[in-house]
Structures
1.
Amino acid sequence: MVAAPASLESLCINSIRMLAVDAINKSKSGHPGLPMGCAPMGYTLWDKFLRHNPKNPKWFNRDRFVLSAGHGCMLLYALLHLTGYESVTIEDIKQFRQWGARTPGHPETFETAGVEVTTGPLGAGISNAVGLAIAEAHLAAKFNKADAELVDHYTYVVMGDGCNQEGVSSEACSLAGHLKLGKLIALYDDNHITIDGKTDVSFTEDVLKRYEAYGWHVQHVPDGNNDVDAIAKAIHLAKEVKNKPSLIKVTTTIGYGAPNKSDTAGVHGAPLGEEETELTRKQLDWSYGPFEIPQEVYSEYQKAIGRGEKLEKEWNQLLSTYRSKYPIEANEFERMLRGELPNNWDKDLPSYSSDDSGLATRKHSQICLGALGPNLPELIGGSADLTHSNYTDIKGETGSFQPETPEKRYLHFGVREHGMAAILNGIAYHNSGLIPYGGTFLVFADYMRGSMRLSALSELGVIYVLTHDSIGVGEDGPTHQPIETIPSLRAIPNMLVFRPGDGNETSGSYKVAIENRKRPSSLCLSRQGMPNQANSSSEKVALGGYILEDCEGLPDLIFIGTGTELNLCVEAAKELTGKGKKIRVVSMPCVELFEEQSNSYKEEVLPSNVRKRIVVEAAQAFGWHKYIGLDGDSVTMHSFGASAPGGTCMNKFGFTVENVLDKANKLLGE
């Protein structure tokens, strides 16, 4: 590709800088330092390397660009605007950070076409990018043929010092090096400034040596402020390295061009202000007014439109040829891209009667994964080094995703819970129909919470398989007994939290989770076994809560149970029914889904004039008050657990039929 003349190149770079300055000044809020410093690498990457089509931001075989340092989002918005994306007009730039704007304070996939990843928490973006690269490598191995490379694109990242300090990036990038993800290229904005000032107050390691130890290819561009040729050469070289991800350290000056504020923490997260902006215009020889961009700059950047349309047309022709040569593979590929599930994908999900042996729901989960695997080829995932505790393997599958076998769909994440969650998000962000899942102990959801929250915020249908869900874990003790975790997950908007009470409810939980491609699901599963209930229902899991056992007429008391404790409710109900009491048992495998039902259905299940209710769940009572009310009670946890056999823990903390009956009798005045 022929390079633009130096004077035009300078205009193109300074257009990014000044759009950022003007937008942030107008909003009186934002982070101008990064876009001013990163403008040369942004221009180089987007003008000379990035394969994308501004007229179709969702073209499948585009390169993915992730701004991991999401606070510097005006870099991305400027590039989207300049290259011709209709989602970011000059009016959108002027509305930066305002209500309803398509230019929010950090990039959000659901707000702005062209934004690939919702980045805000530092380190998340580069970790998501590892997931994007895994998705590309897996699909390429699965669908590409010797005469048709249908899947062939890069994932590029701009990351900062903060991203490299956050632990999640270390987890994900270590795995990326092991997996030899050669199509992952990260540009590290090495500007030596964070909010507290110079990074040497806390961060003096050799980042390149660290990444080299991870197994990455590393380079350094000493003058990232001006040396576009060196940036371009480094990207070229990185693309030639096929068996390693690449990190290019690009040393820049934060706030480059602002004479009094550059290279200071003051330019990181505050507008330049009127006086410094005028000095910056002079420093950069920028003779244009606020939000004014020379036409020759638009003409240069928007060459991306013609290039992108040509690339997409060529790819569509390749897809057409592929379709005629490999119709079976093409049908599956295009079905996945449309987000359609295969016909009868759920036909082998098991169902149970009360005569079937009771199992732990983690074991039922394994059976479900085994049933789904052959019928759902887009299912991909694994465990954070707990495969044989989480039971996250897919029966019949051999081998795992390794550098030599990227076509495999089982991922060994290692002891990297947060990295796993961020990578799963990245796989979902790829928008190729892959359905990612990942397993660990429920208590370690606290390690993953930042990325789980982003799953919910970004409408990513990640499935979290979270086993060992209560004090029933037993001997490992309170450090591994998640007494407060389930209520805290229920507090996350758009997160479905399932705690199935037997095999049928586990099957139903998987069915709902698979069908919800814009909502993440947390499957909270037991270590200990439980009986299959006579009236449990896979289908009724979709209602969130339903009547499991009932009586004639209006009940005297309603038990509400989840998970292993559901059976305590059933046994207590039998005892009370034998004594002439009218008892209803409600199973509540998913509170969120129950809340979404009609008022009439909720009234049918939990009549408002039956105020004697008892919730039984081996977790904190937080959140259950809406169902218990002032006249109800609960058998729940009010302290941390203890180290003892699981059955002993359950007994000592009151999760017994006797204690449930005692609570019920008190409510009934017995």
Note: Residues 346 and 511 are 7 Å apart (CA to CA).
2.
Amino acid sequence: MKTFSHLAVSFAAVALLAGPAGGQETPRPPEARPNILLILFDDVGFMDFGVYGSNSRTPNIDRVAANGTMLSRYYTSPFCGPSRAMLMTGMDNHQVGMGTLVETLSPAMEGLPGYSMSWKRSQQTMGTLFSAAGYRTYVTGKWGIGEVGANLPNAFGFDRSYVMDATGGSNYDNSSYLPAHDESAWFEDGKPIKLPADYYSSRSLVDKMIEYIDAGDSQKPFLGFLSLQAVHIPVQAPVSFIDGYNGTFDAGWDVMREQRYRRALELGIVPPSTKLQAAPDAHRAWDDLTAEEMAIASREMQVNAGMMEAADFHIGRLMKHLEDAGQLENTIVVITSDNGPESGVTRFEGLTGYAVDLVNWIEGRDTSPANMGQPGSLTAIGPEWAAVSAAPFNLYKFYASEGGLRVPLVVAGPGIGEQGIVDAPVHVADLVPTLLQAADIEYDPGSFYGQSAFPMLSGASGETYGNDDSFGFEVSGNAALYRGNWKITRNFPPRGDGEWRLFDISVDPGETTDLSAENAELFESMKAEYAAYTREVGVVELDAGDSAMKQLTNKLVSGVLEKYWPLLLGLVLGFAALFYLALRTLRKAFPQQAA
């Protein structure tokens, strides 16, 4: 039996080891059921937890993995809002009106059932299901499901909620990272709020979760959904955490992606036959950067690693608090990510760079290298480092590649076996029925798109899906269908070409060899099954030349113009007035020349 005593934050070993939760002839009473602590990171790649081979120090997350189960084939949507909708409902994202993000809706999607962006009040969620079973239900952190304010957790089963209802925002205040928005909307129990002056996301969200748990009825179990802002843009962390990684990333992304790939093989989280897909042509080669560019890029990844460690530190505080209260030993802890790593950039060149600098100046942001990760900063790791976080897989967030869909998940607690790495596939929609079964709460398996993975997690079964079973994903054209060891996938621009490909991910999770020509019958069968999936859940196919990135860019540009047009008009008029006054002055000074 493993213990936690050798690490900085000590927990009793019994806290994360216990016998199977199922099998009783009659359901357990609510007070005998386990607590559920679901911790969701934002934009964390497959290898971003320490136990998965990261350079970030995450001892508390690693401790959960060491005393439970660590999944190497956990799949989620590549977009945050659809992923969170599936996580909360156990349904496919289209079935609950979240076919894509609000920011990437195309005109053809608007108003259709799969893209309503708003839930009916009868919508069942993890909150309503656990609340009905006698649980206290709490959520703190990013919510971001559908239209802002339309689907807040207080209306869907959560007793207390402290949430940001946006795709992201500053880790220090209400400000948005998107130039088209004035603020990121925050709500407590459904009412708009301003964040406190001393807010820092990971610390404050854990503090609020502790507050809610401590104020609740201790005779009832709790469902706590801690939805961290780490490590979404803007990547921010206290300097003490950032400086702990000085020099760590100086080798650059080309070398470190190869290192992560080798580490994944050594850890056994991918098969020995795995190959590394070549980086996209649009990625910069590390050796082509100037010394100044290398220093800036290294620091960006330092901030990312520091933010990961800061989040892990505060997770440790929460679990230590539960241990001191005598609650950790009866708590199932699940820690995962909503999608693959973010590849967005915040630094630009040419006319775009000047325009972005002007917007940052207007907004009062300090994007200097010296201020990275601090209040007012706007730091991102970009596509090259995202490829390192997603290694050994291809691509990252927004794409239906393994790098966008496959993320880490560790789980431990009552009923969860101490199994180490398990490669059985699990879909994000499986988590609701899995946790219901783990808590011995009766439910109708046919009411979910997902299915319970608890038999696998408990050690009672080595499988989750059979060789003929399948599940699908789709957001804004980027799509995948899994059947046994096989996967078909399609990605739209800018990193894809909209063409379907077939991979055997049991030997090639790097998606390096398209096997569609050699397996034409299987390929056509899986495409037909995908087509049936789209009809069942209500997918709207994109037109040729369209993409999520195109919709997002168009909406950002139009939003910026709408927000700043009075200022831009004022600047134009001001320059025109200055030019007119200068011309009049010249005419008065040199009347003969003017004539």
Note: The mean pLDDT is 90.
3.
Amino acid sequence: MARRPAQPTGGAQPAIEPLGSVRRSQLISTYGIGAIIDLEKGSFMPMGLDDLEGVTRLPSLTIGEPRLEAMLGVTHFRLGPVSESVPGSRSVVAKTTAPAVRFPEWHECPRCHRIGRQGAPFELAPDGGRLTCLAHGGTVYTAPVRFVVACRHGHISDFPWEWWAHRDRAEGVCPNPSLYLGSLGRSASLAELYVECRSCRTGQNPTRQSLGAAFSSEALSSSSCPGFRPWLWDRESGCTEQVRMLQRGASNVHFPVVCSALSIPPASEAATQIVQEVRMMLEAVPAATLPQVMAGLAEQYGISAEPLLIAWRNLKALETGFDQLTERMARAEEYAALSEDRDDPVLAGVVPQFRNMIIEPPPELTGWFDLIGAASRLREVRALAGFSRIEPYPVSAEKVSEAIRDGAVSPLSKTPKNWRPAAEIRGEGIFMRFRTQTINDWIEANPGLNDRVAILEANSAAMAQKRGYTRDYQVTPRLLLVHSFAHALIRQISIECGYSAAALRERLYVAEPDDTNPAMNGVLIYTGSPDSEGSLGGLVRLADPELLTPIILSTLRSAGWCGSDPVCLETDPRQSGERISGAACHCCLLLPETACEKFNRELDRAMMVGDAESRFAGYFADAGEPSWQS
């Protein structure tokens, strides 16, 4: 990453000192646009698409995924840039680095504890990133302050230090404030911290104000939101949202809205990949000359032009048919693809991006599952579509633009762009499809399920109303069962097979039947990291019945007992609050949030093993008597 200049310069710099480095995949999640990153030279915020566009125009950084493009209303995606080093120096080529801006601007000197900004009183160090305090000979580097303020519309600003220090002073802020942070030293609480101005006095003492009340909801009620958007280098006027004080490194400063899709046939076929690489050029080719252009392209690869023409027609047909594509429809297509054998041929050395083999469940599992899929080749595209602050905002891909328009999700650019930053995740996975009829019979035979689930559904609806978003699903026994099983299976795989839980990820396929669509009740457990872990066949090998059967049975035995039982299993769903879960805790079901699609919500182990009071049986009740009943 490289620093964005405070003022536009006349020409692009050929080389620049880097601020630090992050992985490509982090640019669309943890350290995406609008987030705060602690780098080697300070605290910075990645800039938006307007600034990022200039460093991601290379054709090699362009990728495609037709279904996700249609849902987000874009034409393509771009990978994060890879910096190019300048030989013989520590500098990098400026046009190959992701731009960032210093945030927060306010810093503190660790020696004298003065706070301020660049030029007042701190100065930029020769390395072009850090700030120095000149009161000590320019050798002491400052550190960014701990606190910022933000609102639910995504605006974020420096904490109003000058106003806060003088808020009880009748004359207001003094002409030339000189601010210092201090502590009473009696404890580590926030109330012990204070900010004082040594340029003015209140009575006989320097003007001083404690930070103890800064986190209260009323503390900044008289301070209007300035509408600052550092990642876009602008301000939005007229924001009426209440600002809140946040810690700079807190998780609620940035919640990325990441949308994803699996590459499935026909888009995953080798011929389609070849066409996708030159798609932008083909879009400008007249229909009359398209065969000749395709013939030239085919000659470069040493293949016939016919597969490329067919792939192009299929691609255009897919685009036409995706006008009204929703995430529910996209998941149904993936569900169907994972439920059938697929082994497309390699073409001109280009390997298809999807390969799946269907395996009949072993006799021990046929009562619960009707199909197992061994996906030995998977490609997932994850795109950053926006972000929220203070609270996450769940939204399906096709509704992101609407959420941005309503102010619930922050935009990535000042004006609409036809692309989004994205990352490719290549790996493997195991697909487990539950027997639909068995689930239906289980729900019908256990009416006590509905009372328990109705409480969680009411909590989910209340939270959606409180936070102002619209749900496109309901909490049902089917959802709780599949989701809870997915978490239990990931935990068991991490115990028995050496995978870390953070290296695995779930992809849920759950939907109730309606007049036009059948029910979906399946889950894909796949490698959820772009690094080398799990990418060499270790996970898909577990789909072998001889290996999978003991893992599943161990999963069910482990689900029967939790280290927090009987407290965990006896959890009243009415007390779940925003967890929207029944029996689920860190000892039994909770996972790293990178592995879960639903922020570790909507889980209930009782769906698998039954409740403690025997009001209903679990779906896997015939797996054996749970140890908590022994």
Note: The two ends are 58 Å apart (CA to CA).
